[in-house]
Amino acid sequence: MVSRGDKSIILSLLRQRYEPAAKRPAGEGKEGAEMSEVVQVERNGGVATIRMNRPERMNAYNAEMGSAMLSAVSDVSADPTIRCIVLTGGGRAFSAGGDVEFMATFGEEAHGKFLDLAFRLHALIASLRKAPKPVIAAVNGVAAGAGFSMALACDIAVAAVSARFTLGYQNIGLSPDGGMSFFLARALGTQRAMEMTLFSKVLSASQAAEAGLVQQVYPDAEFAAQAAALAGRLAAGPTLAYARAKELYNRALSQPLETQLEEERQCIARSATTHDFREGVGAFLEKRPARFEGR
């Protein structure tokens, strides 16, 4: 089970995104690739790509991957040189969801083991939603179960033509996790979300796009380049304004209109104090493209 110490570490990782850059360990913010057994992080300009790296298991999610992904997301979220995050999978899958062979080892400890596994996954989902910069799900193949949840937790999702989306929980006698019931019901409505759940319905990339679950579908041969171009475009945008917009949309799901209006008033006033606002206005008046710096 997750010990009290492990929980403290995970909660600490969630808090790190708010640390000033000067307090973070030396070496963060450097370009290049950072490797682990199950997760790879590549920094290129203002874009950080987090790649799930268990291709032989279709990037199936287990405790090791959960901890590594949470650490990676927290790290790049706190790095001011990173202005866009891309989440994708290595090999032919985005993520096939929970590792069933790993689950099969739980035996009589299944209750506690699943509480621990979901704790890590849900910390990751919260981290993706709270990251103060755009997060793109680049769905390069199948996204099932927890993998589907991860894609839904990102700010936008793009998919290769060959990508497929399904829950799959009912196939092994489980209920959804990873925020699936939260995101899917809001995206599709309760009855359509239940249809996908009860019948383990599989959506093609084009069907997912029609349902609004992904925002763009690209040919497989062009997918990596198109996703990179989109990330580069967002990394060149007004990062602080993006972060405040994300905060507003997150809060809009749970508070009344009057509260939301006041939140918008405060956020736009804070945005008006930034360098990017001054640059944007100047560029508009001078009829030239804005050169945002994320500050």
Query: Mean pLDDT across all residues, rounded?
Result: 90
Q: Approximately how much beta-strand content do the residues carry?
A: 15-25%
What would you call the shape?
A: globular
Largest sheet: 7 strands, mixed
Termini separation (Å)?
Answer: 42 Å
CATH fold annotation of the largest domain: 2-enoyl-CoA Hydratase, Chain A, domain 1
Lateral strand order in the biggest sheet: 1-2-3-4-6-8-11
Number of helices: 12
Low-pLDDT regions: 13-27
Question: What's the helical proportion of residues?
Answer: 40-55%
Secondary-structure element order, N to C: HEEEHEEHHEEHEEHHEHEHHHH
Q: Pairing-aware structural class of the strands and helices?
A: alpha/beta
Number of strands: 11
Could you say how many structural domains there are in total? 2
Q: Under the CATH scheme, which architecture of the largest domain would be assigned?
A: Alpha-Beta Complex
How would you briefly describe this protein structure?
The protein folds into two domains: 232 residues, 2-enoyl-CoA Hydratase, Chain A, domain 1; 48 residues, Lyase 2-enoyl-coa Hydratase, Chain  A, domain 2 (Orthogonal Bundle). 48% of the residues lie in helices and 16% in strands. It has twelve helices and eleven strands.
Describe this structure in words.
The protein folds into two domains: 4-235, 2-enoyl-CoA Hydratase, Chain A, domain 1, CATH 3.90.226.10; 239-286, Lyase 2-enoyl-coa Hydratase, Chain  A, domain 2 (Orthogonal Bundle), CATH 1.10.12. The chain starts with a helix and ends in a 9-residue tail after the last helix. The protein has twelve helices and eleven strands. A seven-stranded mixed beta sheet has the order 1-2-3-4-6-8-11, sandwiched between helices. Helix 2 (63-78) links the parallel strand 3 (47-52) and strand 4. Residues 13-27 have low confidence and may be disordered. The protein has 295 residues and is of the alpha/beta class.
